[in-house]
Specification:
The protein is mainly beta. The chain is built from three helices and twelve strands, in the order βββββββββαβββαα.
Amino acid sequence: MRFQRLTFLAGAALALIAAPRVTRAQQAGFATAVGVAYDSIRAQPMAGAQVQLEGTTRVVVADEGGHFRIDSIPPGMHRLIVAHPVLDSIGIHLVSPPHNFAAGESATFQMVTPSPGRLVELLCPAARRALGPAALFGRVRYADSDDPATDARVSLVWYE
């Protein structure tokens, strides 16, 4: 099975990112985005996640609780993009829906990975899911160069 990188957009049935809650900020002329990045796969905040305002150089790093704040956002349509090693290892992108930031606005975002069960539903064909509710996610890389090992075969053996 060839591994595909998925981009998750909130909104429809996935509900990965809650709709932003909007309040008025004190800063006139620019907007602010505040929120939390959370890893539902490991059930913990995504400490150290990089949160970027798409198409700009505005990047912040989430604290140990996954909290982030991006200020000085110019008014207009923008999306937030989260980068974190756990997202790389399972091959997904975490992206907010477009939000129309207004001057003086402060919008709150919850950037959350899909649950393990939802990932299995999205990445595994129904025939394979019928064999059991499990999946192994990751990447295989060459130790010397850290390049992807494109022709690698992975086996999983377990005992009960």
